[in-house]
Amino acid sequence: QVHLVESGGGLVQAGGSLRLSCVASGSSFSSNVMGWYRQAPGKQRELVATIGSHGWTTYAESVKGRFTVSRDNSKNTVYLQMNSLKPEDTAVYYCNAHQRVFITETDYWGQGTQVTVSS
After folding, report:
1. Which of 78, 92, 96, 110 is most exposed, with minimal Cβ within 10 Å?
2. What are the CA-CA distances from residue 9 to residues 26, 30, 64, 78, 92 (Å)?
3. Is the pLDDT of residue 27 over 80?
4. pLDDT tens digits for range 42-70
5. CA-based angle 81:86:89, to the nearest 5?
6. What is the tally of helices (H) and strands (E) in the chain?
7. Quick check: 77 pLDDT over 90?
8. Is 1 helix (H, G, I), strand (E, B) or coil?
């Protein structure tokens, strides 16, 4: 079992920055692929960024160059640094842990944190 708790959301003006954090409890954090997803009102949840156990990263095209995902395995924490925020970044942001044990893959989700970008 993995329990995820996000923090760091809030209201910011366009062009501003926010840093989201996600603390994970449970086992095997360092071996999990961690990710950030977001869901805007009336839209499907979409991938924002992922980071693998060895630090490789992937980003949605819409956030490349503006967002940076990182992790600190000693603190069981994954971060999302968001710069140059735009109103279209407004959404609930969810932390995800993708765990694979042998052939069994499981996704865990946090409760989400609201990010609102005003124009």
Report:
1. 92
2. 23, 24, 19, 14, 9
3. no
4. 999 999 999 998 889 999 999 999 999 99
5. 70
6. 0, 11
7. yes
8. coil
> Where residue 26 falls among pLDDT bands split at 50, 70, 90?
confident
Three-class DSSP category at 89: helix
Q: How far apart are CA 26 and CA 43, in angstroms?
A: 31
Which residues, at least 6 apart from 50, have a Cβ–Cβ distance to it below 8 Å?
A: 33, 34, 35, 36, 57, 58, 69
List the one residue out of 4, 19, 21 whose CA is nearest residue 78: 21
Mapped onto helix, strand or coil, the DSSP state of residue 45 is coil
What tokens does 62 get? 């819409």
Would the CA dihedral through 68, 73, 90, 47 be positive or negative?
A: positive
pLDDT at 8: 97
CA distance 72 to 23: 10
Structure tokens at 93: 């942001």
pLDDT at 29: 84
